[in-house]
Specification:
46% of the residues lie in helices and 14% in strands. It has helices at 16-31, 47-54, 80-84, 95-101, 105-117, 130-134, 138-149, 155-158, 179-198, 200-205, 216-223, 240-250, and strands at residues 5-9, 37-41, 60-63, 89-92, 121-126, 162-165, 207-210, 230-233. Strand 1, helix 1 and strand 2 form a beta-alpha-beta unit. Helix 1 runs parallel beside helix 12 (240-250), helix 5 (105-117) crosses helix 7 and helix 7 packs parallel to helix 9 (179-198). The chain starts with a strand and ends with a helix.
């Protein structure tokens, strides 16, 4: 049995005071949901303040990105070891990083290996664009992202990952894949590729999340699917009531 997993990606939102207010609002409800893994991923500047609030709560803390080098002349970047001091998870390869900041499957691969080396759990994002979806290329694109992004990992390393399938056309648009279509991608493309790379036993243990306009009113229909193990939540994670409702649906 894969333990359900719900993470909130705050993106470029919330200053430190706003982050504290949001977490204080979430704490009573999220702390009670011990049957699932729940994680919040604020901006870098909020991490230490949020870490203090989450201490002893059982709620995980994640960053939204990192660089693969351990130190050096890389102005503006954050090293894996710096994050390992404050959080347990890191989102890697989000479509917005790929679209706006030139990330590739190769750079995502380097980041995954660097994160694992310091004990961080990568939440690895994959997903196709609207054009790729309409051209019938979803399976091809998603399979490539898995194969190239996870290249060179051992089964033991692969078992430490969380994967998030986020069709790009559904992120922040109000559109969402149907639960059945999303589940088919999770099962027949993502988990199948993981099985070929890492072995069936490891593939069966890896949580695969859905992301892309997950809301309280559609969360149950996604989580009831066989191979959807939770959600990477964007906009709805910025409001106490909506994020709690999604986490409760997972529980």
């Amino acid at each position: 049995m894969r333990k359900p997993f719900v993470a909130g990606n705050w993106k470029l939102n919330k200053n430190a005071a706003e982050a504290v207010a949001l977490v204080n609002g979430l704490l009573p409800g999220l702390s009670a949901l011990e049957s699932i893994d729940r994680v919040v991923c604020p901006p870098f500047t909020d991490l230490w303040a949020v870490k203090e609030l989450l201490a002893g709560s059982g709620i995980g803390l994640g960053a939204q990105n990192m660089y693969w080098e351990t130190s050096g002349a890389y102005t503006g970047e954050i090293a894996p070891g710096m994050l390992a001091e404050v959080c347990q998870y890191v989102i890697l390869g989000h479509s917005e990083r790929r679209q706006f900041f030139g990330e590739t499957d190769e750079t995502v691969n380097r980041k995954i290996k660097a994160a694992l080396a310091v004990g961080l759990t990568p939440i690895v994002c994959i997903g196709e664009s609207l054009e790729e979806n309409q051209a019938g290329q979803t399976s091809e694109v998603v399979n490539r992202q898995v194969v190239q992004g996870l290249a060179g990992l051992t089964p033991e390393e692969g078992a430490k990952l969380v994967i998030a399938y986020e069709p790009i056309w559904a992120i922040g648009t109000g559109l969402a894949a149907t639960p059945e279509d999303a589940n088919a991608i999770h099962r027949d493309v993502v988990r199948a590729a993981l099985g070929r790379m890492l072995g069936e036993e490891t593939a069966a243990s890896i949580r695969i999340l859905y992301g892309g306009s997950v809301k309280p009113d559609n969360a149950v229909s996604f989580f009831s699917q066989s191979d959807i193990d939770g959600a990477l939540v964007g906009g709805a994670s910025l409001k106490v009531d909506s994020f709690l409702a999604i986490a409760q649906a997972a529980a």
